[in-house]
């Protein structure tokens, strides 16, 4: 803590949001209840003093006039919002929940209750609270598929474990590929490190279906059709081999490269890929040569291009590139998707309550909450219908696919819903009981990162607002009322963190907080997999074993290729839709803050002028987009930075922000991606018409 001029003090904290950057923050504390500006910490060399605008303006959110302040019971209709609720005491709220959960357990069994959470806070103690309750009581399990499942499977197929090169090494790269991600919107710190490399002459290539603000800054933008990255990467490998640019020694020593693969890739020509990707043959060859001739090339792999039915296979194909050129051997060379595997020493068992887990309990797929709540037998099997939801840190009414089904499920009269939230989200508005939650500025937690290598501990800076309580506190109180007697529910959150740290021989939470983060970066040879990849044979796998990763149906090709599984355009649905993140929202969070609302204005579809002429719409007209799942109406924004036939809608706006009240996830599918599930948010065919 240091004092600034105005008498306010500066405090270290960690951004809890679902963002790969996990920034180290400097929070200006005005008094015991209020904060001022938030800045990026200069002490942390990954954050390097830079954070996004939405978190810099966090005072707008933590002190939002509509922040939930007290437990609420719904007395009016679902979906109305605050006017349909009346305040109740914590005791009444918790007693009501415990009674209902007990009654449902007695009648239908514990699996009829589904604790449902995601990464609204990334802190392990608060985020894992729902797991601790679930495991203690045998409630239904949750397959965590909504974000990383597809990307992770694709990366693991090649590397065998989830880590990559330290992003601080980007500074030493000669060529940076931002592949299927938009860091200007989604993880601004990547741009800080890219800027350092570019000062030294490095080139930036962005591979994305539309000209994002990241693509605008690039030396080369590869504007491919969505869902075709496997074709592009395969053709690049074809060209690299044709030009003799592969690193033969590296391939022999560190990979499973063989004659079968060489033969396979000889048929994946730039002409073949041009047809699939919509790129020109010259573009593909030029890009392949640029990549093949550069030793210190760094691929910053995004999540975006994996959100497709063939996403895991596309991810694996891209992962093959640095293995082919041997880029891993050089400083600033290789790739990074996520460093989550670095934190193995943090023992998750106390944080997730794993010692209480009964592996026989059924698992429900969170991305399929619509089908689950509407009783789809593919999800429920022989098990009971879901009769109660306990929701923390997520807003499925807005963010989950097939949202018409999600709504239908939440509207069920026989479904008892508890939502623990900071704001009256669309999901909270469907609840029977709403509980007010603290923010990261009001509770303690530990954070790993995906974009960097620090383990960080953040502590409360201000007092909890009004009657707000942390996830951990709520779960402890419920456990007590439901007859659970276990030490996990009798200690403070940071004590659980200390247990998790101690089991792995790590310093205490206090020590990590004191030093503002523990750098878990690996030495060069290990980080670059020069001591071996994560598979048993220590090699990089060009041949993916999808069965081992859960693909029992053999849907994905084992060699890098284009898997034609996507929701291809057809005569009835001639367009492909990508639903990318907005800059000043974070998923559905910040859609309520005035600063973000001013910047984003209203939902828009980015439409190529040629397509607009074909449909007969002009700038700011209303366009209706539809498919088998439903229809969405949205204003047109003419945009040249996309291939005709591809349309983009940025941001997970509230459904109510759209004309007619159907949000963007009305159109996205809950079909689980291969090999092991995952939501296919950017793999959607649609028809378009004026009005
Ligand atoms: N401002 C902001 N920041 C965020 C978020 C947010 O909503 N807003 N969300 C957070 C979360 S939860 C996550 S997981 C991360 C995600 O961050 P990213 O890794 O950036 O992934 P996505 O947001 O899914 O997609 C980003 C880009 O992928 C592109 N894309 C879509 N389909 C394809 C394809 O087939 N091929 C290629 N090459 N590109 C494709 C989209 O056009 C888009 O520009 O960001 C986090 N940060
Ligand atoms: N169309 C489309 N849909 C998408 C995506 C897309 O790219 N396109 N991206 C998908 C992805 S990658 C993801 S990860 C999901 C994310 O979707 P969500 O998990 O719903 O993410 P958020 O909108 O950030 O919602 C988190 C909620 O948690 C609450 N929260 C924050 N901290 C706490 C806390 O400490 N306690 C409690 N109780 N609540 C808290 C916030 O107030 C917020 O309402 O959305 C997915 N949906
Ligand atoms: S860039 Fe991401 S981690 Fe950093 S402050 Fe913004 S939301 Fe938080
Ligand atoms: Mo995500």
Automatic annotation (TrEMBL):
Belongs to the prokaryotic molybdopterin-containing oxidoreductase family. Its cofactor is Mo-bis(molybdopterin guanine dinucleotide). Keywords: Iron, Iron-sulfur, Metal-binding, Molybdenum, Oxidoreductase. Residues 8-66 form the 4Fe-4S Mo/W bis-MGD-type domain. PANTHER family: OXIDOREDUCTASE YYAE-RELATED (PTHR43742:SF6), TRIMETHYLAMINE-N-OXIDE REDUCTASE (PTHR43742). SMART domains: Molybdop_Fe4S4. This is Anaerobic selenocysteine-containing dehydrogenase. InterPro entries: Asp_de-COase-like_dom_sf, MoPterin_dinucl-bd_dom, Mopterin_OxRdtase, Mopterin_OxRdtase_4Fe-4S_dom, Mopterin_OxRdtase_prok_CS, Prok_Mopterin_Oxidored. One of its GO terms (molecular function) is oxidoreductase activity.
